[in-house]
Amino acid sequence: MTPSNPIPLSGILLALVALVAMFAMGVDPFLAIAVAVVWIGSLFLAVASPPDSPLMAQEQPFTQDNMRDLIEHSSTPLLVTDKDKVALANRAARNLLGSHVVNQDLRVAFRQPKAIKLLLKRKDGATVVKGLVRRRDIWRINRQGIGDGLAVVELINLTAESDISRAHTDFVANASHELRTPLASIIGYVETLRDEGEDLDPKTAAKFHETILKEARRLQSLVSDLMSLSRVEAEKHEEPSEPLDLAPLVERAARDAAGSERADNLRFELEAGHQVRGDAKQLEQLVRNLVDNALKYGASDAPVEVKLVKGAENRMHLIVTDHGEGIAAEHIPHLTRRFYRTDPGRSRASGGTGLGLAIVKHIVERHRGRLDIESEVGKGTSITVRIPLIDEEVEALS
């Protein structure tokens, strides 16, 4: 080891002065000499340069070879570009754009003016493009240079976020429209009663009051369903834990939905003694919504059948069947959408809010179940809800 800088002369002189002083004070000569040697040695070590360390070696630059393994298994589509072409593409990028993208010119690989402008400019940045793979998809493209003409390109899928935003906008617009309709009717009739109440005959006034009450109840039902939908969506990731016997719950909720005037239209076939994990209030609401729909749209002279049986895959099957007009096949995939109606006029006339099956769908999803709708025009509709049973063997081991 050699010092990178000479030992300062002042340090040596100070050590010699100290040595002479110790002799003068009668300090043992060997001890004095030892102190002086240690002093000078410490000065030597202080100015010595440490040996080169492998940890201090310069980092190796990025290359195609050392980038390949680094990006291959990322779930995010990643590409490495070399000047104007795609040098590498990980598995996710190849699945998205095709294996042929490797070694392609950037203009051919992307075919998006905004993306090409970003990548060929060779400056770090980001851009958002539509229709990168499919017509309605949305992607953010991020570029980060890593030297020697290489750059990493990251593809972030924004399609789901866009769909959620669009669904939220549509929901607010539809909800506003649905709320405005009964409100406009209520305000209109109240203003007429206020301005012309004394001139209206009693029958007309009574009819106006009845309409106001009907629209107010419709508004109340809509607000109630909106709040229910909000609560169910807020809890959809919390799996219920309360053990329930569905049979008494189903019968009680179905009779509540029918009321005394429609209770005779119900026909029950309930298999008791099987438990599920569920939220009692939400499951009661599910049954009420299904039975109420069946009674509204079923034939007035035909019963609504409510069946609860143990089915395949260790699930309880709740089946609600009416014998009404049925639903055309093209409507069935859309029935659980918010505010979707096959016959808007009839639905509003019967007091429907257009949210009943949307609420049912979210309750079924929260209970890790499945919802199936079968219908035939002229014969009726059958809705089946499948909810997992409590696994008794697993429960015994836990």
UniProtKB/TrEMBL annotation:
GO cellular component: plasma membrane
Any Pfam family hit: PAS_8
Catalytic activity, reaction form: ATP + protein L-histidine = ADP + protein N-phospho-L-histidine
The keyword ATP-binding belongs to this UniProt entry's keyword annotation: yes
Biological processes, Gene Ontology terms: cellular response to phosphate starvation
PROSITE patterns (UniProt xref): HIS_KIN
TM spans (from-to): 7-24, 30-48
Main subcellular localisation: membrane
Protein name as annotated: histidine kinase
